[in-house]
Amino acid sequence: MKTVALITSAAVAAMMTVPAMAEDHQVQMLNKDSEGRPMQFEPAFLKIAPGDTVTFVPTDKGHNSESVIIPEEAEAWKGKISQEITVTFDEEGFYAYKCLPHVAMGMVGLIQVGDDPEPLDDAAVQKLPGKAKTRMAELIAEADAKTTE
Ligand SMILES: [Cu+2]
């Protein structure tokens, strides 16, 4: 009886030290988001844990997801137009991405990996075209607000 109890508590302890399973998050590529903004990713800002994946879903056609500003050690990605792509985020940091046809219309997104990563390179943000720059500034503000909550 005593042995069984010992084995059980050891098993429970082992289970508790196993890191949380990697999660998959979905981002939709849309002609209009729930707030009526044209050509958007939704959610456009995501905070995830290292090892998680994000699946970009072609809910509306004619969009893609590709990285723009990413941490140095991270791998770039480039999804095809109208196709689903799943990206794994192992490195902590901020990842800015865009839809190639609609970046100038503000179709950009931001993913925060980890709790308090290095900020996004501001000089690179300033180079984003058209509405992408202001939209990215909004997303960075959203990330900051969530970090200081
Ligand atoms: Cu698009």
Automatic annotation (TrEMBL):
Transmembrane segments: none annotated. Residues 28-113 form the Blue (type 1) copper domain. It holds the Pfam family Copper-bind. Its cofactor is Cu cation. Its main location: periplasm. One of its GO terms (cellular component) is periplasmic space. InterPro entries: Amicyanin/Pseudoazurin, BlueCu_1, BlueCu_1_BS, Copper_blue_Plastocyanin, Cupredoxin, Pseudoazurin. CDD domains: Pseudoazurin. This is Pseudoazurin. It comes from Devosia oryzisoli.
